[in-house]
Amino acid sequence: MLEVAKSPESQDKLQHVVELLDDAKKFFYRIGDVEIEKKVSEMAAQINEPLYLVIAGEYNSGKSSFVNALCGKRILKDGPTPSTNKITLLTYGEDVSSEEVDDHQCKMTYPLEALKDLTIVDTPGTNSIIAEHQLITEGFIHRSEVVLFVTSADHPFTESERVFLQLLKGKWDRKLLFVLNKIDLKTEEDHNEIITFIEKNFYRLFGYEPKVISMSTKDAFLAKTSGDEELLKKSNIEKVEQFIFEKMDYDTKMDLKILSPLKYLVNVFDGLKNILSEKVSHCNNEIKSVEMFEKRSNNKRQDMIDYIVKYKTETQSVFTRLKEKVDNFLNYHVNIRSIITMKFAREKIDDKFKREVFGVANPRTELERIINDAIDYVDRNNNVLWDMANDYIESEIAFQRKTNDDSLVRKDRYFSNRESDKHVNLREYAKQFQELDGELEGAKVYRVVQSGFLNFIVLEGLALGIVIGLSTFFIPNTLGIVVASILAGIGFSIFPLKRKKYRNEFMQRVDAICERFNNMMLFEFEKIIDRVLEDIGNRISSYRDTRWSEREEVNRQITELKALSERTKDLIRKSCIQ
Q1: Distance (Å, rounded) from C-alpha 288 to C-alpha 294?
Q2: In degrees to the nearest 10, what's the CA dihedral of 140, 142, 146, 152?
Q3: 172: Cβ–Cβ under 8 A, 6 or more apart, which residues?
Q4: Keywords, A to Z (predicted)?
Q5: How many angstroms separate the CA atoms of 114 and 87, rounded?
Q6: Long-range residue pairs from 344-350, CB within 8 A, at least 24 positions apart, any chain
Q7: Spatial contact of 353 and 329, defined as CB atoms under 8 Å apart
């Protein structure tokens, strides 16, 4: 294990990193990022372990051969085809041993003194025909603290290597050493040209020239197993060993131990900050969109209410025409001449009243038509409102990530059945006009005429009797004539008085019914419209409330993330690593 207690200062720095990793792990657990949480946990678990030197590169570039050359023994399988299918952690041990850790990882030991504070990690080759090999390697890179990238002289700095290097250096910012292998296959002129090619292309990507060490793993392994000092020097492996085992002293390794997880967190935090900011922006846009939709709905409601008011004018016209027809009928038929004429006719006045007043353009029929037209109008517009709401919700769902929120799933329209309770109630209320039924009103007119006619007959009979009595009895002529005239006048005024009384009573009743009918119609239709808007509002507002809650939660995450990021950057500044 790395001796972390060499100095209180180093121990203090490392402890702060451990605490930060623990807090970061809890943070990623809370936000549900299982993948990053797992990676942070892995880095926290290896913080006290020897420095991880990860050997990476394309398959057949000589990674396993390089490890064998370092050990001077073929402890790893190598060859021209993809031979490494697991992450192999090589650590110090008194004996050579191998232990399977899981499906993708194994641990080996070897008695090499330098492995006491260094773990060499051999990885499956990238750009392999076996795609899983690259995924295994990419899934482990975050744990590397130094990366030794092996590229082959016969195909240096390929496109797949460029992509992988961007992951290594661009995303995770790992300490990187280039090893150009198989130089035994090239001339010195070719070798210099390849070095220039690597440095130029690397500089184009990352803005600085890399450390490149050339060697031949084939010659190195052969020299170590045969004891050929001249071939060992020619292989140039001693220069690589010097860099790994001597130039990376304890302080350098400690700095890398501290720096690697911190740089990982900085990259993760920066990426997450952008994601969370986009989420807040999206939530704000969605909330604004909901508010705009609610404004449109309210405007639509007002338009519907304004349109319903026009039916009030139609209703008033129906009642006005009814009053005019009744007035005309009374003036024309409820008088002495018409009544006497009608007495000799077969048609009764109540039948005539029903036929002329209620027979053509029956007001009840007209009012039912108005009610049905209004219901049709409200139905159509309520369906339009539901379509607007459902289309809005579906467009928002299509735009955002897939959700399991049942409240956002399109449902059947709330208001699509013309025979709903609301319509039935509305029609029932409309039957208040039943009190102006033609049969009932005809009977009332008939009673008016009959009572008036009887009163007329009685009074005129009395007047006539007085006149006859003047000639039979000795009644003073002047007084008798005056009394007879008064009775005759009262008899002739009976029909106008009864007609006026019935007209006034009828007109007052019709006006009251008209006002009650219009108030009822407006009230009921407003209730229907408001109920639909309330149901739509509940669905839309629940969607908006979800976005409000999400925005609040994301803002809390941003605040916590900012604090963690500041702690991370502060630790980097205190480490004094450039």
Answers
A1: 10
A2: 50
A3: 141, 142, 144, 263, 264, 267
A4: Membrane, Transmembrane, Transmembrane helix
A5: 20
A6: 348/446, 349/442, 349/445, 349/446, 349/449, 350/442, 350/443, 350/445, 350/446
A7: yes
Q: Pull the structure tokens for residue 354.
A: 């029903």
- Give the residue from 415, 394, 396, 378 showing the smallest Cα distance to 535: 415
Q: Which residue has the tokens 């449902």?
A: 411
Task: Please give, one letter per residue, the 3-state secondary structure of 99-165.
Answer: EEEECCEEEEEECCHHHHCEEEEECCCECCCCHHHHHHHHCCHHHCCEEEEEEECCCCCCHHHHHHH
- Regarding pTM above 0.70, the answer is no
Q: How far is CA 348 from CA 132, 174, 442, 446, 457, in A?
A: 103, 111, 10, 8, 19
Which residues, listed in sequence order, are joined to residue 181 by a DSSP beta bridge? Answer: 152
How many Å apart are CA 495 and CA 438, to the nearest integer? Answer: 21
Contact 138, 109 (CB under 8 A): no
31 Cβ contact list (under 8 Å, min separation 6): 557
pLDDT tens column, 295-307: 888 888 888 888 8
CB 323 within 8 A of CB 507: yes
* Among 330, 314, 311, residue whose Cα is nearest residue 524: 311
Tokens of 196: 């220039």
Answer for the pair 47, 139: CB distance below 8 angstroms, yes or no.
Answer: no
Distance separating alpha carbons of residues 254 and 258, to the nearest angstrom: 6
Q: What is the CA radius of gyration of the chain?
A: 51
Which residue do the tokens 């070719």 mark?
190
| Residue indicated by tokens 């302080």 | 251
pLDDT single digits (tens) 468-522: 665 555 555 665 556 556 655 555 556 677 777 777 777 888 888 888 888 888 8
* pLDDT for the residue 415: 43
Structure letter (DSSP) for residue 58: B
Q: Domain limits of the chain?
A: 49-250, 281-438+517-567
The superfamily in CATH containing domain 49-250 is P-loop containing nucleotide triphosphate hydrolases (3.40.50.300)
| Mean confidence (pLDDT) of the chain | 77
